[in-house]
Amino acid sequence: MTEAAASPLTRGLRWLRTVPATISLCLLFALVFAAEWYVWRTFGYATFVDLFVATPEPSPGWLLAPLAHLPTGYRHLASSVVQLLLFGGIVERRLGRRQYLALVAASGLATTAAQVASYVALGATGRGVGTLGASGIVLAMTALVVVDSVRYRLATGDWQGDVTWVWVLLGSVIVAQAVFGLLSLVLGTATVGVVGHLTGVAIGLGYGLVRPTGAVLFSGDTARFG
Fold first, then answer.
1. 145 near 167, Cβ under 8 Å?
2. What is the SS3 assignment for 54?
3. Does the pTM of the predicted model rise above 0.85?
4. Is 188 buried (19+), middle (13-18) or exposed (0-12) by CB count in 10 A?
5. Measured between alpha carbons, how far is residue 65 from residues 52, 197, 213 in Å?
6. What phi and psi values does residue 224 have, to the nearest 5 degrees?
7. 54 pairs with which residues across the strands?
8. Structure confidence at residue 2 (pLDDT)
9. How far apart, in whole angstroms, are the C-alpha atoms of residue 166 and residue 183?
C-alpha cells in the first residue's frame, strides 16, 4: 500500500511513530499530573507547592513546574497533550531529536523563570506565589511551526506538507490568543501566566527567525504531515 493510498488514520499512526521524543514528553506530562494529584490528595497543598510550583525561593518545584498542570485542570492537560503532539511533533521532525529536546528544556525553564520574575517585579510575596504549567513549552513549539512554515513558503512558494497551511492557521490563532493576553495583564485581570506565555511565544518566534535558511528548506523533506 502506498502512502497516498493509506487511510488518514494509518498515515497518522505512521507519523506518530516518527516522533518518539514528543510522545515521551506527553506521557511525562500525564505522569507528572498523576503525581501532582496524588501528592495534593495525600500530603496536602504545602507539599504540592514544594514539589511542583516554582517560587521566588529555590525549591524542588523548579524541576517539575515546567511540566506540571493544576491537578484539577484535566482539560488543560488534555489541551497541552494534543497541542504538543501536533506542533511538538512537527518541530521534532524538523529540528531533530537533540535540538528539539534542548529547545524543550530551554523554553520550559525560561518561561517559568520569566513568570516568577514578573511576580517579584510586582512585589508579590507569600508562600502561594509561584507558577507552574507546560504552556510555555507548547507555545514555543506552536510559534516555531508558524514562523518556520511561513519562511519555507516565502522561499519556495510551497508548504512543507499537504496540510501545513492548516497548522499555520491554527497555530497563528493560538499565538494571537497568547499575545492578546497582554491586555489582561495591563488591565490587571490576568488569571493565567501571561508573562510565561508571551516568553514561550517569543522563544518560538525568535528561534524560527534565526534558523539558517538551508535548515528551513531541508525541513521540507522531513514529512508530509507538516
1. yes
2. strand
3. yes
4. exposed
5. 5, 14, 34
6. -90, -5
7. 131
8. 47
9. 27
Q: How does pLDDT run across 155-165, given as a tens digit for each residue? A: 999 998 888 99
Answer whether 205's CB lies under 8 Å from 144's CB: yes
Contacts of 216 (CB under 8 A, 6+ apart): 148, 151, 152, 155
Q: Give, in order, the Cα–Cα distances in Å from 189 to each of 71, 105, 182.
A: 23, 29, 10
- CA-CA distances (angstroms) from residue 201 to 46, 141, 163, 177, 214? 31, 8, 22, 11, 23
Question: How many Cα atoms sit within 13 Å of 85 on the Cβ side?
Answer: 16
Q: How far apart are CA 70 and CA 56, in angstroms?
A: 19
* Interior/surface letters 40-73, b for 16+ CB within 10 angstroms, e for the rest: beeeeeeebbebbbbbeeebebbebbbbbbbbee
- Whether residue 54 contacts residue 62, with contact meaning beta carbons closer than 8 Å, is answered with yes
In the block, residue with C-alpha cell 521534532: 92
Alpha helix ranges (H) inside the chain:
8-16, 20-43, 45-52, 61-64, 74-83, 89-95, 97-121, 135-156, 164-187, 194-210, 213-218
Contacts of 104 (CB under 8 A, 6+ apart): 25, 88, 137
**DSSP string over 101-162:** HHHHHHHHHHHHHHHHHHHHHTT--STT--B--SHHHHHHHHHHHHHHHHHHHHHHSS-SST
Confidence of residue 83 (pLDDT cuts 50, 70, 90): very high
